[in-house]
């Protein structure tokens, strides 16, 4: 005999099933051990439109094709590891809801551009992180080791607060046409992280970072297309930050 609890569970399951829709995921697949060419593969899923693209990818990997390869970690928009091109735009799979991207049509998922694809949706991030390391993304000070915290006013902190939000997902850099065509360009993310320290009143290496970005592959390569700002999942005004670095290079005021 069914108990009230069992009846409620069955009712909840039926209600959940009634909200499912059929969605086609069209994924760009690449396995260098099988072929030198990438191909597209379709998967049909029954999924709640309020679920995320990442949930769909999990369902494919766990239930349909265990060989599907992609990066993910926190699944909550903090680690930035699941950046990919979804319907032609750079997004975080964990923050993109099925219902927000027209599930009536196939949802295309492919790796971010400008970086070498290793397998399926996984790209080689080393060039991206090398550019990040090159701009010295750490506080530089001189003198003796401090005996207390280096204090800073709220006004001084506000000067660079926006660029502290970067999660190094590479969505901005891999949306940049200049980066697509020339992997030597530092890219928006590296410049954003340089900005974060150039305008930090406690730092003493602003001039050094500006000289690094004054290189032919540095900040002057930006063509102000705003792709990077549109792609940022944290809402950072990336193009504005790049312009502020350019202005600091011209005026040497920061």
Automatic annotation (TrEMBL):
Pathway: Carbohydrate metabolism; tricarboxylic acid cycle. Keywords: 2Fe-2S, 3Fe-4S, 4Fe-4S, Iron, Iron-sulfur, Metal-binding, Oxidoreductase, Tricarboxylic acid cycle. Its cofactor is [3Fe-4S] cluster; [2Fe-2S] cluster; [4Fe-4S] cluster. It catalyses: a menaquinone + succinate = a menaquinol + fumarate. GO terms for molecular function: 2 iron, 2 sulfur cluster binding; 3 iron, 4 sulfur cluster binding; 4 iron, 4 sulfur cluster binding; electron transfer activity; metal ion binding; succinate dehydrogenase (quinone) activity. GO terms for biological process: respiratory electron transport chain; tricarboxylic acid cycle. Binds 1 [3Fe-4S] cluster. Gene3D superfamilies: 3.10.20.30, Alpha-helical ferredoxin. It is an enzyme of class 1 (oxidoreductase). It comes from the Bacteria. Its EC number is 1.3.5.1. Residues 21-115 form the 2Fe-2S ferredoxin-type domain. Residues 156-178 form the 4Fe-4S ferredoxin-type domain. Belongs to the succinate dehydrogenase/fumarate reductase iron-sulfur protein family. This is Fumarate reductase iron-sulfur subunit. It comes from Streptomyces longispororuber.
